[in-house]
Hints:
Blueprint: H1 2-23, H2 27-54, H3 64-83, H4 90-104, H5 108-121, H6 128-141, H7 145-157, H8 165-178, H9 182-193, H10 200-216, H11 220-227, H12 237-254, H13 259-271, H14 279-292, H15 297-308, H16 313-328, H17 332-345, H18 350-377, H19 383-396, H20 400-413, H21 417-434, H22 438-451, H23 456-464, H24 474-494, H25 500-520, H26 525-542, H27 545-558, H28 563-573, H29 580-613
Helix pairs in contact: 2-3, 2-4, 3-4, 4-5, 5-6, 6-7, 6-8, 7-8, 8-9, 9-10, 10-11, 11-12, 12-13, 13-14, 14-15, 14-16, 15-16, 16-17, 16-18, 17-18, 18-19, 19-20, 20-21, 21-22, 22-23, 24-25, 24-26, 25-26, 26-27, 27-28
Amino acid sequence: MLKGYIKKILKILLIGIIGAQTIGCTCCAYFNHAWNMEEAAGEAAVLREARLDSVPGDSILGSGSERKLYDRVLEKGSRVVERFPKNERQVPKAVFFMAEAFRNKNEWRQAVEKYDELERYFPEYDSMPKAEYERAYCLYRNQDYTLARFSAERIIEQGESHKYYLPTMELMSILQEREGSPGDAIASLEAVLATDFGTPWTRARARMRLAGLYYEQKNYEKAREHYLHKELFILPVHERYKAQSTAAECLLMLSDENGLAAANEYKALADSAVFKDRKTLSLVRQGEILLSINDERGIEVLRNLAYDAPRSEMASRAFFGIGDFRQKKYNYPTAILLYDSSFQSRPASSWAQESFRRKAALSRLLALKDTIVELEKENKSFFPQEFQIAELFLLRLSETDSALAILARMDSTLEDPELKARATYTRAFIYDEFKQDTSNAYFIYRKIIENFPQTDYAKQAQANMGLQVNVKTKEDFARDAFLKAEEAWLKAQRIPVENIEEIEEAFQNTIALYDSVIIDFPETQTALQATYVKANIFAEEIGNLDSAQVLWGKLSREHFRTPWGKAAREKLSGKLSMDYADIIRLRERVKDLEVSTKQQSDKYWQEAEQKKNEPPPPPKVADDEVLLDDYNTLYNFK
């Protein structure tokens, strides 16, 4: 009985299959492509979820099996779209699955194209909210930040009614951070974290970003609050250590009084079994913080660390920290020995390199101090040595306050106005550029403008304050006088040769103007230029070669390092001399001449060829001569 029933069913199925093949039905092919597409997508999703569970945040495409499944989704989805374009149910699903496959393969541009296609042709598709968000995300990953922001803003405008409003807010915070708007990024992240949106992993990553943004904004209290939040304990060990160590740094940044508490937090990190691989780093930072608050227990911590791990980078850092502490206590010989130990521990490390520079600077500093003592005994000026000490404190030893103290003392004791102006300007510049203290810097700049008005320091002070530079130095006044002499010289050259008396008077006036530059501004470069021009006028215009040679000789002897002294020496030698720059200019002129000659030659031959092919011009007909019958003619035709 049962066997007969089974045979009957099989017979009916066989007849149906034969009939379907006979009439060419495509229903089976349609279900085959759609079903295989969904099955491949489901299997790929399982593999992706397992991978992300084991390595959260992994953005690298997994095994070849996962990639092959996405390729199968794309193949079957394209078959559905190609063979059944009028199926209003399966075609949008196929387009969406293809977009998701491209996204999961990290092929962002192709994914964006499919999401756009879905919105253009199937705007009512039920997964359209997810497609809108994923398109914005893919645009961001494809570095199309402007379009990504535009797409995200469209979602945010719909408010919380949009299913993907909160993830879009998080994406918007990333875009705002990239655009240099950390305040807006903070607001977006705060809005997201105020809800229960996201998995524990995504919330921890978002909170870590929020803490970093607060830290960059120097809002250390809020940064510390987020770095210590319980949601971060799901992160890997190295990121948890970063969060807790940065929280200790925030505590130190809030107030110097928190130094001991910050050091204790690092001690707790060093004692924690979870962070045992970072114990050395925690201890060295603990010792550095203790020394920064003048607690000498930090010396013991750093010394033990250096002796436990000799010839290591941490030992070099530990010796450097103790040396820096001794340097700030003005115990320079001991600091030099510690810096040397730092260098010997690990010469290639950055701490060793800085120790080497500081050791050299301190040795130079001690030598300068000995020189100053000797000069004081002989009642000689020691301004250069003191200024070098200030430079060492500022640029080599990172002791800005010590440099300012030396410059302030020099400012109050110096009598030479030029040296006093230099020391005062340097002090203002340190306040302005190194300490970012514009109130003190601008106060000193104004003193410079008031007390040293005709100096380059006053001009630079106005420029540094952002004011219009209207201060004139001696060089500026000399330049103005020189330009007046040049103008008189040009006028003298335009006088006609017949007016000999006027020419002589103009030459005398010109020489007098050049002399005024030389006499009134003797220490300026413009005075040297005026002397050189005056000598040239004597030699080439007036014919007084003896006076010209006297002036050239003075320039070449007393100012041989200046351009005018060198030019005067060439005049006296009577030989052609040129430097490498002159040779380069001559070569460039020769090249320009060759190019110009070739262009003119080509133009000539082109015109000659054109004239050769042109028809000859018509002969000119001479007009009949008209003879005038008046008293001026030679002949009387009557």
